[in-house]
Specification:
This protein is of the alpha+beta class and 253 residues long. It has one domain: Creatine Amidinohydrolase (Alpha-Beta Complex), CATH 3.90.230.10. It contains four helices and 15 strands. It has a five-stranded antiparallel beta sheet with strand order 8-7-9-14-15. Strands 1, 2, 4 and 5 form a four-stranded antiparallel beta sheet that branches. It has a three-stranded antiparallel beta sheet with strand order 3-12-11, with no helix packed on it. It starts with 9 loop residues before the first helix and ends in a 5-residue tail after the last strand. Bound molecules: 2-amino-4-trifluoromethylsulfanyl-butyric acid and cobalt (II) ion. The site of cobalt (II) ion has 5 residues, from loops.
Length: 253
């Protein structure tokens, strides 16, 4: 199948920005709620209330049968952890929180990984490096660069720190669909793939493991975990190339 990238008008990007702003505000709100004793189901309920109150629709609930508003991925869980009233956060955990919202038919998508109370220096370093890998990828988003320049920048930061990037899951184009072309791998040689241009909107989302890159999906058919049970982190932003240049849409202003 050939790659079918749907470029967006400035008006369409403005709507994606509204969806993305709800996502950014939800993440800012959830940051304050993450603490020992809270369950991932508690976070999910708060997120659904927040997004709905903002006039948006939770993007993940019902997507391919996914049952919740958030993906909450704790410790060795990489992505797509399902919120549960049986999963109570403990001091020293790390939790990935992935949020999507729909406004007027357009999607915004972002994720952070947060420490629960005080965490080990090893865990804190994983969070710093994974966010730096995302920032390095975002910095490559400009007209004239190629898609794999993003991938290469992400991989370089993660591997220079001694970590592995997950290869089984990738970032994506985003717009009227949560997942559009192009796929955005978190690895690869620079200078390959489509040229980036005005109207492109991407969700860039490095998943970085302290141990090996291999992952597996649990019997709940969603939760992705590291095969070696090493800690994993995930950060994601939605970014557009606007007429005024690249703009991260999911950063709370
Ligand atoms: N941010 C994730 C992604 O882009 C969220 C998908 S979870 C799902 O793939 F439940 F909606 F699939
Ligand atoms: Co995504």
């Amino acid at each position: 199948m050939s790659v079918m990238i749907i470029l967006k008008t400035p008006q369409e990007i403005a709507v994606i920005e509204r969806a993305s702003r709800v996502v950014a505000l939800a993440i800012a709100f959830l940051r304050e709620q993450v603490k020992p004793g809270v369950t991932t189901a508690d976070l999910d309920r708060l997120a659904e209330e927040f997004i709905t109150r903002e006039g948006a629709i939770p993007a993940f609930k019902g997507y391919r049968g996914y049952p919740a508003t958030l993906c909450t991925s704790v410790n060795e869980e990489v992505v797509h952890g399902i919120p549960s009233s049986r999963r109570r956060l403990e001091e020293g955990d790390i939790i990935g929180i992935d949020v999507g919202a729909i406004v007027e038919g357009f999607y915004g998508d972002a994720a952070v990984t947060l420490p629960v109370g005080r965490v080990s220096e090893e865990a804190a370093r994983l969070l710093r490096v994974t966010e730096a890998a995302l920032d390095a990828g975002l910095a490559q988003v400009r007209a004239g660069n190629r898609l794999s320049d993003i991938s290469h920048a992400v991989q370089t930061v993660a591997e220079d720190a001694g970590y592995s990037v997950v290869t089984d899951f990738v970032g994506h184009g985003i717009g009227r669909n949560l997942h559009e072309d192009p796929q955005v791998p978190n690895f690869g040689k620079p200078g390959e793939g489509p040229r980036l241009k005005e109207g492109l909107v991407l969700a860039i989302e490095p998943m970085v493991n302290i141990g090996g890159h291999e992952v597996e999906v649990l019997s709940d058919r969603w939760t992705v975990v590291t095969r070696d049970k090493s800690l994993s982190a995930h950060f994601e932003h939605t970014i557009a190339i606007t007429p005024d240049g690249p703009k991260v849409l999911t950063r709370a202003a």
